[in-house]
Amino acid sequence: MLLQCYAFPFSALLDSLRMLQDLRDSNSSNFQVSEFILMGFPGIHSWQHWLSLPLALIYLLALSANILILIIINQEAALHQPMYHFLGILAVVDMGLATTIMPKILAILWFDAKTISLPECFVQMYVIHCFVGMESGIFVCMAIDRYVAICRPLRYPSIVTESFVIKTAVFMALRNSLCPVSVPVLAAQRHYCSRNRIEHCLCSNLGVTSLSCDDRTINSINQLILAWTLMGSDLCLIILSYALILHSVLNLNSAEAVSKALSTCTSHLILIFFFYTVIIVISITHSAGMRVPLIPVILNVLHNVIPPALNPMVYALKNKELRHSLYKVLRLDIKGN
Questions:
Q1: Measuring CA to CA, how many Å separate 5 from each of 10, 93, 131, 265?
Q2: Angle at 275 between CA 271 and CA 279, to 5 degrees
Q3: Average pLDDT for consecutive 10-residue bins of the chain (337 residues)?
Q4: Are 200 and 300 in contact (CB under 8 A)?
Q5: Contact 123, 13 (CB under 8 A)
Q6: pTM listed for this prediction
Q7: Buried (b) or exposed (e) across 137-154, using 16+ Cβ within 10 A?
Q8: Which residues make beta-bridge pairs with 35?
């Protein structure tokens, strides 16, 4: 259902970007490139195909693990709770994010299929922003869910309801579908007159617009505003939620209650730490203009494929109910667990 919400604007966006590109071609007397070439991993072009095996394995792991999570949540009545509904939505988003980039990356590494049309590149740019923003939004929802469960346990059933899950999921889907539209639209308005080789495996906003022959200041400003308004606000809400949780937990008199409360948040914090840390590192490396472009490219690719593979495993290992449901679905002996 969530993927259908995203699928609707794709064809319309693709047509709009083609029209914008055609308009710029007709209005410009200079040569306009018709396609980009994704070179892959900079500095290691001669042996980058060896990376295809680990990347393919990580992608298959991400798909299979998230599909398994969805099956477990669907089959086990005990997991029909808001927290696990959010986890199910996160699994769908993770699969969408990984599938947005991995088939093209593997095609580059296996078949040397490096060319990509401008509209397709801009759409990939848009979809990546959508799914990354959606993942950040779901982390916020999970943080709020844990805050209410730990700090307002008596009011939890009346606040975090099925309706709450649906409303927050729809809000996040709309927010992260509409806000990033400016990224590909502004990128399509730039004029690409000569250079078309992108030292990357995917169409990143800054990587693509750096090839334009005209001023791209508006693109950089727009990217900065989006980062602060979406990711920045999400991160602030998450920090606030867990600060309140920590303050509430430290006031508990029972050591066992403290341990139980903290254990329910551990898996969330591990994933959130990895997700936002990599985003911050990527931003710093881009801003600093590193002389070794391979590092931000690898980080960018791993950031879009590692979390989808990591999220289900962390939750399965750290969450007792989910772990026992996994054993049950796989028909494993859970005695003594």
A1: 10, 11, 12, 29
A2: 165
A3: 50 64 53 90 91 96 95 91 94 96 96 95 96 96 92 93 96 96 95 90 91 91 91 94 88 74 77 87 70 79 90 82 84 54
A4: yes
A5: yes
A6: 0.86
A7: bbbbbbbbbbbbbbbeee
A8: 117
Tokens of 224: 């900065």
Walk across the sheet containing 35-38 and list its strands: 115-117, 35-38, 197-198
The whole-number pLDDT of residue 95 equals 97
User: CA 103, CA 8: separation in Å to the nearest integer?
Assistant: 21
**Which tokens sit at 236?**
């602030």
**According to the model, what pLDDT value does residue 328 have?**
83
Q: State how far the Cα of 321 lies from the Cα of 219, in Å rounded to an integer.
A: 46
Q: Rounded distance, CA 137 to CA 176, Å?
A: 8
Q: Which residues fall within 8 angstroms of residue 215, CB to CB, at 6 or more apart?
A: none
- CA 39, 42, 43, 48 torsion-angle sign: negative
Cβ 301 vs Cβ 202: under 8 Å: yes
